[in-house]
Design a protein that fits this description.
With 236 residues, this protein is α+β, with helices and mostly antiparallel strands. Helix content is 44%, strand content 22%. Helix 4 packs antiparallel against helix 9 and helix 5 crosses helix 8.
Amino acid sequence: MPNITRQPNNLLAALSESDRRQLMPHLTQVELRLGAVLAEPYAPLKHAYFLHESMVSLVSMTSEGASVEVAMVGREGLLGVTAILQVESSPYRALVQVPGGASRIEIKKLKILFDERASLRRLILRYLHALMTQTAQSAVCSRFHSVEQRLARWILSSRDRARRNSFRYTQEFLSNMLGADRSTTTLAAGVLKRAGLIKYTRGTITILNSKELEQVACECYHVVKREFQDTSHPPL
């Protein structure tokens, strides 16, 4: 594999030197492609991923085929973290929405290190709390906030994790993530576009005014961001 400069993963960056020496030999550098499914609902988890440039959505699927994103994992976290709770699978599909690098580790090895290393355990548990908050807040968001507010939150959350202002997201993809029909999502994107907050052409969203976009986003954006900032690893 070619030598690629990685964006730092916040959890890995926050490791003590002792924990880093124990963990690093078990990490494999991988590239995650756009649209790749890293886990299916209730399928056994074999690997966990410390994400770098990449970003993954945890998506809840209905029996009719509808979907909605319940959480987002990027450079701040660890995909597959629930395995340390002795749960062998997750009810959500893990879908790569932004391609890029990740550091992969076997679940069984992560569990061993989690049990052996108290400081690593505290770090992962703090992250798990923030992830659980994000998942719970998504229910509040879907119930009480408009599609425009949710779309603004989702775009900002993508920016925070990927550290960039432009993303290739189709209307169909956005509709699936927001749990809204395509026409409603299109109207919401149009509202933000006409207000001069985003540019949306040919499947690419570009943030034009972050400050005002944050004013449109619901409080869920700030609640979740605060939870990640309260952990010991660097903020979003």
